[in-house]
Task: structure prediction
Amino acid sequence: MFPRLFEIGRFHVASYGLFVALGYLAGIAWLKKHREAMGLTEDRFWSLIYAVFFGAVLGGKLMFMALNWKAYASGQLGIIGDFRYGFVYYGGVLGCLACGTLYARRVGIPFAPTVDYFAVVAPIGQAIGRIGCLAAGCCYGAPTSLPWGIAFTDRHSLVPDNLLGVKLHPSQLYESLGNLVVAWVVWSVLGRRLEGKTAPGNAFVAYVCLYSILRFLVEFTRADDRGGFFLGLSPAQWTAIVLAAGVLVWNAVRRPEAEAA
Result:
């Protein structure tokens, strides 16, 4: 793949960072287009975007550090020096929810109707970001004999040397394509909500449940270090189970109120 788009002396542009940035920009552009539909002023819209972005960076980094605490304790990784490396998507999601909810409550933005819009752009942004993962060789898959297996050969990729040249599951593409399907379904649910056919918050519920299923399944094809396993499941799979269960409980508790609205 192409972990580095181009190099000028010691300076290089990393594919991963570019695609992650494109994912964020695509999401922000779509949300900006629907700002009035969300009932947000220009100032509140950008304040919410900043809050969510801060939560994504902080949450993603904190979960990565929690899963790789031994590397930090041994000095293999540094909190400041290696800050741009290593973020966990689920940590970013939790950070977004925490910071976004705190800001929304502080200024009186309704949670359910607003988070439905973010539920549409989250899988779109991640579908773009996972292309960056593919280019960088992170989140790489396990060896496979399937005809669509991908072999990495660039020494700058994050694939370990013993797997260079070996056909691997394109787990990054599995998740990218799956996220496009998730985005389409969530957008359909949001459309039904705007027509008054379903309650606010249901698009968010659909996103969390569908992405949790997608991530749970894709994890079986991955071979990178994901922080260990418990009962045969990775931390991401346990997080998927907890989040899906949590959002279903939230949906059941709020259902009478949502139906009344």
User: Anything to note?
Assistant: Strands lie at 4-8, 11-14, 150-151, 167-168. The radius of gyration is 19 Å. The chain has a mean pLDDT of 86.
